[in-house]
TrEMBL record:
SUPFAM superfamilies: Glyceraldehyde-3-phosphate dehydrogenase-like, C-terminal domain, NAD(P)-binding Rossmann-fold domains. It comes from Aquibacillus halophilus. InterPro entries: Gfo/Idh/MocA-like_OxRdtase_N, Gfo/Idh/MocA_oxidrdct_glycsds, GFO_IDH_MocA-like_dom, NAD(P)-bd_dom_sf. This is Gfo/Idh/MocA family oxidoreductase. Residues 132-278 form the GFO/IDH/MocA-like oxidoreductase domain. Keywords: Oxidoreductase. The keyword Cell membrane does not apply. GO terms for molecular function: nucleotide binding; oxidoreductase activity.
């Protein structure tokens, strides 16, 4: 694993717990972790259960006792690390968004195809049992033709103007702001549940344009540098966009870090000709469903606690009603990754999904600049010509 803070903790926890909950033929062995600061990476290796550490990620890739490279560093490092790992024949799990630009994402996809290695993107929210169950209902036709997807990812952790200029607010490190950080997740959920997006129209806004310097310090916390030098925020604080899907559905999306009181409000509602579903991460074990063929007088949204043994992934955990949490979405994702490595295929979401997601992100940025609709397929075709 390269990197060891917020996602480093989430992924390491999932590697440790995976053999405990899932009976798999292939199980992860936490062989080594890489970080630039020897003191800090040593502490992380001990705490998170890695047998060894490296202070240069390239050394990790050279090692022949490592099969899988897990990239949990800021976005500007993903492309170089993933391509180097794939060229060395390693399997790769990469955090989202996979790149800073669509061209880089396409380069990563090409490297993945050439390598024959297994590749996956860490869009963990797909792996909430309630989201997988929603997908099952949609696939079974329980909602019929899909008309609307309405998705929001609402946070508020940067609202205080004294929140420092961390890597998440610098374009050269992160690519985009709320758009790529949390918008990427709802784009993935919409693609997973409803299908491919044909075109988008979006707007971006940066409410606080200057902040004091500082660093992320674990989770979504930060520390301000003593110098307190002010610097320019170069990414969006909020992104709002609408889309048309290939299958005719309409999408409305909102990704913002300025929705006060919403700590991690990742929500969607999908309306189809025969029913609707609603989900909210902060109440992640529940799925609200409405079916138009329910008896008249008893119609309305009802709540299913998606914790029955028959529900996706739940037979690995506890008896019905004994809920699971955020961290288990990573275990579920990793169980698919281990099966992929065992059997030699790249489970979805893989780098193809990563590139499609990046195309939507880039299209929204282009749309916001030009105030025009942007066609996703055309953008990908034009970008792939530059490969
Ligand atoms: N799937 C999710 O829900 C989710 C949530 C948060 C973040 N992420 C993604 O995970 C990635 C990491 O985010 P985070 O919140 O863990 O960040 P973070 O700031 O908490 O941790 C980043 C880690 O990368 C290390 N690092 C930075 N540059 C490095 C380099 N050049 N070489 C080696 N190590 C380096 C840092 O020292 C730190 O350990 C990002 O791509 C982010 O978008 C995903």
């Amino acid at each position: 694993m390269i990197g060891y803070q917020f996602m480093g903790k989430a992924h390491s926890h999932a590697y440790r717990d995976l053999p405990f909950f899932f009976d798999l033929n292939y199980q992860p062995v936490q062989q080594a972790i890489a970080g630039r600061n020897e003191q800090a990476v040593k502490v992380a290796a001990d705490k998170m259960g890695y047998a060894s550490y490296e202070t240069d990620w390239r050394k990790l890739i050279e090692r022949d006792d490592i099969d899988l490279i897990d990239i949990v560093t800021p976005n500007n490092t993903h492309t170089e690390m993933a391509i180097a790992a794939l060229e060395a024949g390693k399997h790769v799990l990469c955090e989202k968004p996979i790149a800073l630009s669509l061209l880089d994402a396409e380069r990563m996809l090409e490297a993945a195809k050439k390598s024959g290695a297994v590749h996956m993107v860490s869009h963990n929210y797909r792996f909430a049992p309630a989201v997988q169950f929603a997908k099952k209902l949609i696939n079974e036709g329980r909602l019929g033709k899909i008309y609307h997807v309405r998705a929001q990812y609402l946070q508020d952790f940067v609202m205080d103007p004294s929140f420092p200029l961390v890597w998440r607010l610098k374009k050269e490190v992160t690519g985009s702001g709320a758009l790529g950080d949390i918008g990427a997740h709802i784009i993935d959920l919409a693609r997973f549940l409803v299908g491919e997006i044909r075109e988008v129209n979006g707007m971006l806004e940066t409410f606080i344009k200057e902040r004091p310097s500082g660093e992320m310090s674990g989770g979504l916390s930060s520390t301000t540098s003593e110098a307190e030098q002010m610097g320019e925020v170069t990414v969006d604080d909020a992104a709002i966009f609408m889309s048309r899907f290939e299958n005719g559905a309409l999408g409305t999306f909102e990704a913002t870090r300025f929705a006060g009181g919403n700590r991690n409000g990742n929500r969607f509602e999908i309306n189809g000709e025969k029913g609707s579903i609603r989900w909210d991460l902060e109440n992640m074990n529940n799925l609200e469903v409405f079916f138009a063929d329910d008896e008249e007088g008893l119609q309305g949204f009802r709540t299913i606690n998606v914790t029955e043994e028959s529900h996706p992934y739940m037979s690995n955990y506890w008896p019905a009603g004994h809920i699971i949490g955020y961290e288990h979405t990573f275990l579920n994702l990793f169980s698919e990754l281990m099966k992929g490595i065992e059997k030699g295929y790249s489970p979805e979401p893989n780098f193809e999904d990563g590139a499609k997601n990046q195309a939507v992100l880039e299209a929204i940025q282009l749309s916001a600049e030009s105030r025009q609709w942007v066609d996703i397929k055309h953008l990908r075709e034009e970008t792939r010509k530059k490969l």
